Structure prediction request, 408 residues.
Amino acid sequence: MATRCVLLPYAAEFPATNFPQLQLVNRRPVLSFDAATDEACQWSGIAPQGLTGTLELVVTYMMASATSGAIGLQASVEAVSDGDATDLDAGDSFDTVNNSASVTVPGTAGHIDQVTITLTNKDGIAAGDYFRVRLNRDADGSAITDDAAGDALVLCCEIRDGA
Amino acid sequence: MAVRFESASAEYFKRTTSLPNFNATYTAMGWFSVVSFTQFGYFFVVGDAAATNYDGLSFRNTLGDLRVFNNVATVNSGQRLVVDTWVHLAMVRESATSQKLYVGGALTDTNTGSVGTSRTGGIFDVGSYENVAATVNLNGRVAAIKVWDAALTLDEIKSELPSVRPQRLTSLNAWYPGFPGSGERARDYSGGGRDWTEVGTLSDEDPPPLSYGAPLLWLPYVAAAGGGATQPPRSMHQFRMRGAA
Prediction:
């Protein structure tokens, strides 16, 4: 697997409602995902040349306070090729959500963990496509068991491909 | 990353040094969300403590109608705010006879009252005007305050609207991402050290959905490379490998 890009908190974009807070924790920028309500953010880019194989989103996070329980993360991809009949100023076109496993959080708040989400549903992304990748915490547990208390603080994400 | 002002307790931001020069040009902007409309709620005021000389932006009634005003004239705007709804407001002093109000990146009103060029000031408040009366204290939230010692154009204001981080750095007076916490919420990130003084016990609430405005970090990928060369003994030779991504 090869790293293709790193998604930092400062580059995140937010929907109109239900989004994580951009905060500083010990001067580290983080995206703070609520424990009770699903919150999502996204990043935009152009799919690099040579993009190939299985895509993964690797999320590096720490918990604000929880030392037990689990979190569930979801990633979705929207990819638009040149010539696609997708009206970008009228709505979104994300593919089906990809779920992480229900991941047990670190036993010490502030210790990092990394969750890998395989982007099986990737909206047919190809090199040169305009794309967005959205990250959501399934805080209400509707698809993945998420019972860790307190905020999940995402430090950054990484997109890997099969090169 | 939004700061909450509770009007009942006279909570606001204040500065008394390195102020925008209201006898020249400046721009002050931020995102605001009002919790309740009292008689007035001051968003920005640059002026003096005696309320003799001032430029300001506030709402003017319990309906949330805006006004842009100075010590010579008041312009009652037709713009009406909505409770608990984020709106971008900008106040621009272009000259002694032009003080502009922008709402949501659109010019809505111009106050042409002639204020001259020799006013004395000393105060820059956000969320009140020195608590001269409870009615001037804002009951609401503010985020992404940015201040310049220049009059920004309409296009520049539009480009600043969607991000926390300032796009224009020339003549930047101060900018405040408003990260939560005492002290941090008032910190100036321009490098100029123009932090706010927090008046009252302020708190933090959810911000508007603004991006900080930074790009992705792209990593060039290079596949494994290889090569070979035969080097005569005791001679210099350059060996170069090139990989294709």
Notes: The radius of gyration of chain A is 15 Å.
